[in-house]
Amino acid sequence: MDFSIMVYAVIALVGVAIGWLFASYQHAQQKAEQLAEREEMVAELSAAKQQITQSEHWRAECELLNNEVRSLQSINTSLEADLREVTTRMEAAQQHADDKIRQMINSEQRLSEQFENLANRIFEHSNRRVDEQNRQSLNSLLSPLREQVAGRFSPSGSGQFR
């Protein structure tokens, strides 16, 4: 019996050793799985941190761009107001220039009419003077001839020459 106890004891020791080895193997496997999970979590955490960093960078970039857009919109609004003001002034200046041109055209037409009237009056006056001078010259030339012709005809009305 001693031998069988020893066999049982050896079998029990071998069983305990196998159990211990099996438990150690499972424990090592669990540790390896935990280590792999931990490394995976560390990688995920690192990726998440990098993503957060990139998100913060893009958020800051977005904020800068939004500020720039607001600034450009403000400048655009100001420039649009300036453009409206300049356009209004230009339209007023154009209207004023158009009015001046119309006034000048009207003045030119009036002056042309006045000049034509004056030229006609001068021409008429000159014609009258020339006509009068011609009449006087003709009368002074024809007067001796008339007197001669009148003297040649008899006053008796016979119509004969003397």
From TrEMBL:
N-terminal signal peptide: none
Q: Which family does it belong to?
A: Belongs to the RmuC family.
Describe its function. Answer: Involved in DNA recombination.
InterPro entries (UniProt xref): DNA_recombination_RmuC
Q: Which residues cross the membrane?
A: 6-25
Q: Does the keyword Acetylation apply?
A: no
> What does the entry give for GO biological process?
DNA recombination
Q: Does the keyword Membrane apply?
A: yes
Which segments of the protein form a coiled coil according to its record? 28-121
This chain's protein is named DNA recombination protein RmuC
Q: Which domain of life is it from?
A: Bacteria
- Keywords from the UniProt entry: Coiled coil, DNA recombination, Membrane, Transmembrane, Transmembrane helix
